[in-house]
């Protein structure tokens, strides 16, 4: 994770990028187009770098009134658009996309299992995910997050982001120098980030599979 201003974003890449414009109306409701570094020479190039840093998804948070960018005038022929115009065009683009995709997401009730690439894949976690989908109609992401703090099974609660995770005793333990110390540290970090975790040891699961499936579903 990194936090940078517009001038310092260069060749950085992340799976997810959160863009916050920080510009907004004053106490009286007046909006001034004072865009600092964006208005300087090369501001358009800086903006282009910023909006192309995400590998998977960009989240845009803005306090700029929608009226400022919803009725954007076209650029006159032969003129180069200013950085402010490009910013407004990008905000309008993001706003238009949200209106297209959000209703489709709200109407969709189909759950699915997504298996993400991992250096330590777990066939058990994959099989568990498919069984939860089949019997409990719960979608999930298998191998969610980076390798060091990977959650073997990240469930998808309705109307909220991932918050429930299942940790299994899988191949990942063999790669740790001290499995116990690593697991305690990983669990603490994830819980501090708001995850509700279910610890699942495979011998226990095989003794009472329905009981564990019911316990996992009850966490949603």
Task: Describe the protein's architecture and organization.
The chain folds into two domains: 6-107, no CATH class; 113-218, 3-Layer(aba) Sandwich (Endonuclease, Chain A), CATH 3.40.960. Helix content is 37%, strand content 17%. It has seven helices and seven strands. The strands form two sheets. Strands 3-4-5-6-7 form a five-stranded mixed β-sheet. The two termini are 28 Å apart.
Helix content: 25-40%
Intertermini distance: 28 Å
Strand order of the largest sheet: 3-4-5-6-7
Shape: elongated
Helix-strand category: alpha/beta
The largest sheet, given as strand count, sense and whether it forms a barrel, is:
5 strands, mixed
Arithmetic mean of pLDDT: 84
Order of helices and strands: EHEHHEHEEEHEHH
CATH class of the largest domain: Alpha Beta
Count of runs of 4 or more consecutive helical residues: 7
User: What do we call the CATH homologous superfamily of the largest domain?
Assistant: VSR Endonuclease
Name the beta content range: 15-25%
């Amino acid at each position: 994770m990194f936090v940078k201003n517009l001038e310092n974003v260069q060749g950085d890449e992340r799976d997810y990028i959160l863009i916050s414009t920080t510009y907004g109306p004053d106490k009286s409701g007046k909006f001034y187009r004072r865009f600092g570094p964006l208005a300087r020479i090369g501001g358009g190039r800086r903006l282009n770098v910023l909006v192309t840093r995400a590998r998977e998804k960009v989240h845009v948070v803005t306090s700029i009134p929608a009226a400022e960018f919803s009725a954007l005038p076209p650029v006159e022929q032969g003129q180069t658009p200013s950085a402010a115009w490009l910013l407004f065009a990008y905000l309008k683009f993001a706003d238009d996309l949200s209106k297209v995709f959000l209703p489709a997401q709200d109407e969709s009730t189909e759950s699915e299992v997504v298996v993400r690439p991992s250096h330590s894949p777990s066939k058990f976690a994959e099989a568990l995910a498919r069984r939860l989908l089949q019997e409990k109609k719960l979608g999930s992401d298998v191998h969610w997050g980076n390798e060091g703090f990977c959650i073997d099974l990240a469930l998808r609660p309705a109307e909220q982001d991932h918050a429930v995770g299942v940790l299994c005793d899988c191949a990942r333990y063999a790669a740790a120098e001290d499995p116990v110390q690593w697991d305690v540290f990983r669990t603490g970090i994830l819980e501090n980030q708001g995850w509700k975790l279910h610890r699942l040891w495979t011998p226990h699961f095989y003794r009472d599979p329905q009981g564990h499936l019911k316990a996992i579903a009850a966490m949603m």
